[in-house]
Design brief:
2 domains, 65% helix
């Protein structure tokens, strides 16, 4: 009897461990607060030209936590990238494409200035 109880104990410990290990998703994603997720869903650049570009290109991925893209309003994720490559490096990543982000981020008529403004908008902390 004691053995059985111990056995159950071990199995439930493994189950709890597996839940935390497999169930919690990527570290970046689990660090997002509800406010950040809501902001990512709703935020739009105030400038109408930027808003139009954002809506037809960047928004699809940069508001989707499954896409592995740094989310709009998740300033910490953007700051890490900014520290590693600087604004020019980030603009180059968009132009050349990065992993699943297509070259030009789906905005073929965008220039460096557009990308810079879109990055600044997305990198601003959710509020
Ligand atoms: C099809 C999905 C998709 C679209 C559309 C998209 N992105 Fe991305 N973007 C990603 C993903 C995924 C990453 C993370 C890539 C990685 O580091 O693995 C990313 C990363 C970035 C980065 C960080 C690059 C770096 O060097 O770390 C910038 C800047 C960026 N995107 C800007 C934009 C802008 C601006 C637009 C719109 C003009 C845009 N993206 C459109 C998916 C997308």
């Amino acid at each position: 009897m004691k053995k059985i109880i111990l056995g159950f104990g071990a199995i439930s410990l493994i189950a709890v461990g597996a839940y935390f290990f497999f169930g919690s998703g990527g570290a970046t994603v689990s660090a997002l607060s509800d406010l950040q997720l809501r902001y990512a869903e709703n935020a739009t650049p105030s400038d109408p030209t930027q808003a139009e570009i954002y809506d037809r290109s960047c928004r699809a991925c940069h508001t989707d936590k499954e896409s592995k893209a740094p989310l709009t309003g998740h300033s910490e994720a953007w700051q890490t990238r900014m520290n590693a490559r600087g604004m020019d490096g980030l603009i180059n990543s968009v132009k050349n494409g990065l992993e699943t982000m297509p070259a030009m981020g789906l905005c073929n008529d965008c220039g460096d200035d557009d990308f810079k403004r879109l990055i600044e908008f997305m990198a601003k902390e959710a509020s």
